[in-house]
Amino acid sequence: MNKWPGMPEEREMRDKADLAKRYRRLAEEVRTIAQGIYDDEERNRLMEVVNDYEQWAIVMEATGRLNPRHLALLISN
Known about the structure:
The protein is mainly α. The chain is built from 3 helices and no strands. The protein has one domain (8-76). It has helices at 7-35, 40-65, 68-76. The longest helix has 29 residues, at 7-35. It is elongated and about 40 Å long.
């Protein structure tokens, strides 16, 4: 058992917030690259990657705000 109740959860929330920021930064970098590509098919593939990064950021933000017990209930249903 942890000597400092709540500490790992707080750290996990910060870690997830950092991950969300990283995913958003990566999405912006890929978006910038995609805007410079003239081939529609290639640009669309890169924009799919952008969308994936954005979705991962949303998940990290959402799970970082949820109590782990509530998250377990959401996942199990």
